[in-house]
Amino acid sequence: MTDDAPVVDQVATPVEEPQETKMFDATYVKELRSEAANYRTQLRALEQAQKDAEETRLTQQNEWQKLAEQRATEIDELSPYKDRYTGIVESIAVSNAKRVETIPDAMRGLIPDFNDPVKLSGWLDANSQLLTKPLAPALNGNAGAGDRPTDAETLSAEELVAARKFGHNRERISRR
């Protein structure tokens, strides 16, 4: 294979193609850069707003947590008072029931049906005289009791004057 043709190096040499460089107007480029800068600042502001909102939310959750803890503490502090109040109300209700039992059956219809034992107790206190039978007065003048006046009993000055007017003296009164 002997060719008399000259051997050409078959290494490809780059062919320079004409480069098309696009030229943009400077004002257009400035507008594009300004727009991109605005988007970047808006993005940063949005990210900061999200971060602040998250911090606020966490702060509020912590506030709610603190508030819940405060309320739990207050409830714990008031619990003995509630128990005490319940005991007092139950005691008043039992007392009211005993008081109502002492009232004659004919008068029990006058007692209002209050749901509050304290209110019923107040009503019973105010109207106890109307709901009970009065005691009969002693008509015998304490004759059977054997009580006699003693020397220790003294008469007032007015009583002595009245006794003398009727002809009684101190010795006669004490002998009775």
Question: What would you say this structure looks like, in words?
Answer:
The chain is mostly helical. It has a domain at 26-131. The chain is built from 5 helices and no strands. α1 packs parallel to α3 (117-131). The longest helix has 77 residues, at 26-102. 1% of the residues are buried. The mean pLDDT is 79.
| Helix share bin | 55-70%
Give the C-alpha Rg. Answer: 56 Å
Envelope shape = rod-shaped
Strand % is: under 5%
What class, by secondary structure content? Answer: mainly alpha
Keywords:
176 residues, 5 helices, mainly alpha, single chain, 63% helix
Task: Please describe the topology of this protein.
Elements: H1 26-102, H2 105-108, H3 117-131, H4 157-165, H5 170-175
Summary of the model, kept short:
63% of the residues lie in helices and 0% in strands. It has five helices and no strands. The longest helix has 77 residues, at 26-102.
